[in-house]
Design brief:
This protein is mainly beta. The chain contains four helices and 18 strands. It is globular, with a radius of gyration of 24 Å.
């Protein structure tokens, strides 16, 4: 235990001398062995660039004009509206999910040793974003571009920012965990995983501009996501990640109101262990495969899947 505490303090000192990068391009990372990173490519689709036709709620403005056609009224013009917007996407890559014991400061002033679940990841901007452009025949076709028009900007930019939202969820035990920023855990993970490059927490990485880079060997922004107090009984779980794309869907809630669902990456994991002795060697990426179709269907149901897949893009 004394040796682990010394390593924690050494890691903290090393983290304090790492310079905060302005952009993802300035990060220098040691070369990883083949197979260490699992890379999830972005999957943009043309239908994500538009929504509709939809009817906007302006029923109180219904009236019949005397000298102009009714089709010129505001209500008629908003009866069948198609909303178009550009869509950008980021590539997501991650190292194997792991665990580490960390001393966490408590409100009492004492330290409590906790098991932290974490995942080190990288996001890259590979360009290839979709921008709807009007054609001469008054139709729209998505143009593949490397620049995007960010919210509030007047000119296109070749950089985007990642505003992450991570949720570790298990329908098996009926629990979901938002990621937590644990300052005392990041230096320990930094020292263990990424010597030579800074690991950003979920707030810090949102401040990094991510420029377009080549697909072959281009750098990216590195981050770490941490969870604490995860139920040790969990065998099947998924990590849901939002912020990798600005694509969304509009739907209706049970009450009839409009609901916006964001494009989300679902990563599936399982751990064939027990609640008595947790260790990272039990964690497996993907959905377990069995020969019995009924048992496989039961396992798939824990992930809300119709078929066995390691990951998929969903809207939620």
């Amino acid at each position: 235990m004394f040796r682990q505490r010394i390593l924690s303090w050494v890691a903290l000192v090393l983290a304090l001398v790492v310079t905060e990068p302005r952009t993802a391009r300035s990060q220098t990372v040691r070369k990883l062995a083949p197979g260490i990173l699992t890379v999830i490519s972005p999957e943009p689709h043309e239908e994500e660039t538009f929504h509709g036709p939809i009817t906007l709620s302006v029923s109180q403005l219904d009236w019949t004009p005397n000298f102009t056609p009714k089709t010129e009224t505001l209500r008629e013009k908003t009866a069948n509206v198609t909303i178009r917007h550009n869509v950008w996407n980021l590539e997501f890559a991650f190292k194997p999910m792991r665990m580490v014991y960390v001393d966490i400061p408590q409100p009492t002033g004492k330290m409590q040793r906790k098991l932290i679940w974490y995942m080190v990841y990288r996001v890259r901007n590979l360009g290839g974003h979709l921008n709807p452009v009007s054609a001469e025949d008054k139709t729209y076709k998505p143009e593949i571009v490397d620049e995007v028009l960010n919210v509030g900007a007047t000119e296109p930019s070749n950089t985007v920012r990642f505003f992450p939202h991570f949720v570790l969820e298990s329908s098996e035990v009926g629990k979901a965990y938002l990621d937590r920023i644990i300052p005392s855990a990041v230096p320990v993970i930094q020292f263990r995983e990424m010597r030579g490059a800074k690991l950003h927490n979920s707030v810090e990485i949102s401040q990094v501009s991510i420029p377009v880079v080549p697909r072959d060997g281009g750098p990216g922004a590195w981050g770490v996501v941490t969870w604490e107090d995860v139920d040790p009984r969990i065998d099947f779980y998924s990590v849901y990640i939002q912020g990798l794309s600005n694509a969304f869907q509009l739907g209706a809630s049970p009450t009839g109101s409009v609901v916006q669902r964001l494009k989300t990456l679902q990563l599936n994991f399982w751990r064939p262990g027990d609640a008595e002795y947790e260790h990272e060697g039990e964690i497996r990426y993907g959905v377990p495969a069995v020969t019995d179709p009924n048992e496989q269907a039961t396992i798939n149901a824990h992930y809300n899947l119709e078929r066995r897949v390691d990951y998929l893009w969903v809207f939620r």
